[in-house]
Amino acid sequence: MKELASNKEWKKWGESDPLFGVASWNNKNKDGSNPWTNEDFYQLGESDWRDFRTHWERYGLSSNDSCLEIGCGAGRITKQLALYFKEVHAVDVSEKMIEYAKTHVTSSSVSFHVSTGVNIPLNDQSVNSVFSTHVFQHLDTLDIARNYFKEISRVLKRNGTMMIHLPIYKWPSSSRGFKQLYAIRKQLSDVRASMRRSLMEFGLGKPIMRGLWYPVDFFYEEFPKLGLDDIEISMFVTKSNNDPHPFVLARKG
After folding, report:
1. Are residues 204 and 12 in contact, defined by beta-carbon separation less than 8 angstroms?
2. Which of the 8 DSSP states describes residue 249?
3. Around Cβ 8, how many Cβ atoms within 10 Å?
4. Cβ distance 59 to 161 under 8 Å?
5. How far apart are the first and last CA of the chain?
6. Where are the domains of the chain?
7. How many CB atoms lie within 10 A of CB 217?
């Protein structure tokens, strides 16, 4: 699989506005009325991680030995993972994001890796835990996500757990019409994204933020094929902005 098209905008966010690219709150962009400061940005990570950790531990976080973070960005959550886990592997497609993270996450327990977004640069069964937030929602297709989950299963040790944030939906029982409407909307979105990425390469326009939604059935159909079980879907609000965050959790069998 070639490098993902969606890498273009995330590399651009890393160059132009890494903090807003990670936490896209209203008016928090660098030209906004209340741009992120480093202090506020990493305090947000501390607050959100407390909420994430509580639910992961409730599910049954198996070990604090090692963790892979997919899409570490500027290190908002990485900084907290380094305090919790003995070893952290932080992966991102943007070199600039990782450069920014390295200046603020200095723990010797963290190893940063630049990735193509296709393969996870770790050995088989090398980590006990996998975490990601505000990343899988920006992938282009379910096929790309499927490959990511395959890679997650590959690097997870037996009995290791994953906690992945992503948008989730469930259509009503008579869902054919909804599926068709979503398919049309997705095709239009793909066309717009392709056009805006082309313009971005010529320095025209800001990088985009795409949205991919995941049907509930996707997890229960695909995860068992990958050796992932104890599948659980959890939704809760974070104290930082009272915004609902849906997660899928699973365990490597």
Report:
1. no
2. E
3. 19
4. yes
5. 27
6. 7-175+208-252
7. 10
CATH 3.30.499.10 fits 7-175+208-252, yes or no: no
**Both structure tokens of 197:** 């990425």
- Is-above-0.85 flag for pTM? yes
Q: SS3 string of 62-128?
A: CCCCEEEEECCCCCCCHHHHHHHCCEEEEEECCHHHHHHHHHHCCCCCEEEEECCCCCCCCCCCCEE
CA 33 – CA 30 distance, rounded (Å): 8
Q: Residue for token digits 């239009």?
A: 188
SS3 sequence, 189-235?
HHHHHHHHHHHHHCCCCCCCCCCCCEEHHHHHHHHHHHCEEEEEEEE
Q: Which residues contact 27 (CB under 8 A, 6 or more apart)?
A: 33, 34, 35
pLDDT in tens, 189-244: 777 777 777 777 777 777 767 778 999 999 999 999 999 999 999 999 999 999 99
